[in-house]
Amino acid sequence: MNKDIQNRAIHQRKTKISFLFLLLLLAMGMFLFSVLKTISSDRHIPSHTTTIYDRSFRGSIISEDGYTLSSSEKTYQAVVRGASIDLDKKALFVKLFSIYSGIPEKDILKRFKNRKGKEIKGNIILSKTINARSAMQLKSLAYKLRKLDVFQSIKLRNGIEVLYGLDIIENGESRRFPLGDVLSPILGYVGDESDGRYTRPAGKKGLERAYEKHITSKKNGYFQGKRDVVGAVIHDKNSIKMQRVDGLDLHLNIPLALQRRVELMIDQMKHSIDADEILVGIMESETGKVLSMASSERYDPSHITRNDIASLVPKFTEYPYEAGSVLKPITIAMALDKKRITPDTWFKTGYKRFDITGGQHVSDDDYFESLSVTDIVVHSSNIGTSQISWLLTGKEFREGLLKFGLAQKTGIDLSRDLPGSLKSLRLLDHKMHRANSSFGYGMMVTFTQLLKAYSAFNNDGLAVTPHLVDYLQDAQGNHYTLPPEVGNMQAVSKKAANQIHDILLEVVKRGTGVKAQYPGLEVGGKTGTAHIAKHGRYVREYHSSFYGFANDNEGHKYTIGALVIRAKKPYKYFASQSAVPTFRRVLDILVELDYLKPEGGLEVTSPEIKVEPKTPPVVIHEPSVAQKEEKKKVTVEPEIKSKPSVKELFKLQPKPEPKPVNTKPAKEKSTRELFEDLF
């Protein structure tokens, strides 16, 4: 019995010892696992090194005369913890933050409450759009608020007390358009792209979109090194600095001075003739450099409203329309090129109604028994142009239009370049369709296509590709140019182009373009007044246009286009009453700014634009009527001064005193005086 008891006791001791041994092994395993985890895991202790990031910027867009039209700046957000503000000093915090940030107090107080109206204890974002200047001021305010004991410590769940203050954190990059609506919609606008922590601008239209991959920021920079006791980076041989790489800057061919003058002029013209919109383009005929591309429908890319939606689209390349009679010189150029006619070939035009088959008839505004090819253009004869188109086959006619760049992209450096449309070869083989297309109906073209096509008549038959950007530039000053998607096109032979050139001169001398005459300059062009189609029918609304050229004896050669959309004043829908006077005023501006130098000097003879009293006038200083009659020849060289600031251009001082009108001729004014006149 005693032996059984002893054996049982021994067995129990063994079991207890085994259990204790297993427990010891488990404890030892847990200890070793804890040590291994501690060794292998990141330890949350202050690092011996620190890194300062320098985020890269989107490139700027700069005018030919050095003005920044679009640029980027950093944005910051202000964050505060609701529970960290002493309730007795909350009113003081809101008051000071409102003063420093410019945000109304009532808007700040709203951010302290959630949708249910309860006070937020956690993080509160007071603003996400603070600029760099305000951010510096708010950082200074944060320090002052700590000194005033506005913030109180908060006990966390682990028992540690933490003092939160006002934090100003970099959160993105915003786009600035410091000159407002200048050069819109060509300049375009941007949207926001965010990765959740940082927001950058992204181009949506115009140049901002067309050059997105070139001007967008490339690579962020940083500075890394050992830190001192207060967390500042120590600059020594072991520190690492990586330079940021910003996007390329766009340098335009467009001078701000010329662009703004044209914009102000077409604003006045639009009110004068009650038009929906006016477009003007000025391009060097030999190089394709666009010196101005202006619309009367503009917007501020920084503050786009619902009313601006219709203006966001650049109609220069995104508004196909039936052009009308401006197509006649192109039709005749093709026939001249094929040697089917000469400028002196005569056609019978004495028909009240001319049958172009299929039950369709055309007529002319003026009756002539017969007209030469030159006079068919001068008097804009539909009957004569129809007969000339029949001397070409449908294939020759269509291929000829394609050589002028119609029904295809122009290659201009904008975000969207619509091709327009031509009738099919099957239809153009029919005389009726060929006749309609010969004077600009039944086909869709864009403003830029016609500007490119007409450059051929001032450039030995070569239609040049328009381009807005002169070059791209990096931070080191290196220049880059991009080849156009569509190159220059030899539309017709040099002989045919020069024959049309001379015919267009006659249009201005004694035809529908007489109001475009400018003594001392070689001016040619063609008018077009075309019905607008709605719901498949032509209505009593019109596109009025004038495309042509202006040259001087010093080698300056410009192709110029003016398109008026729906002029509603009586008889102003005629191109001779709207587009031609607009073209003429463009010549005034080019001469006044020395882009054209007429033989005999400055001579402004175009009539003043009359605006209805109810329409608020746009202020622009022009020579007085007396000065126009005197026709003074200016020989004094303009005074060269430093470029005026943007503040001087736009007169941003509050309520400036009215100044007497400066009646000095434009060529005698200094650079500063010219710019004060513009704005």
Architecture overview:
Strands 2, 3, 4, 7, 12, 20 and 21 form a 7-stranded mixed beta sheet that branches. The protein has a 5-stranded antiparallel beta sheet with strand order 14-13-25-24-23, with helices on both faces. A 3-stranded antiparallel beta sheet has the order 1-10-11, with no helix packed on it. The radius of gyration is 36 Å and the shape is elongated. Helix 2 runs antiparallel to helix 4, helix 7 runs antiparallel to helix 17 and helix 9 runs parallel beside helix 11. The protein has 5 domains: 90 residues, Penicillin-binding protein 2a (Domain 2); 91 residues, Alpha-Beta Plaits, CATH 3.30.70; 143 residues, Beta-Lactamase (2-Layer Sandwich), CATH 3.30.450.330; 126 residues, Beta-lactamase, CATH 3.40.710; 59 residues, no CATH class. The longest helix has 39 residues. The protein contains 20 helices and 25 strands. It has 679 residues and is an alpha+beta fold. Keywords: Carboxypeptidase, Hydrolase, Membrane, Protease, Transmembrane, Transmembrane helix. It comes from Sulfurovum xiamenensis. This is Penicillin-binding transpeptidase domain-containing protein. Its main location: membrane. It is found in: Membrane.
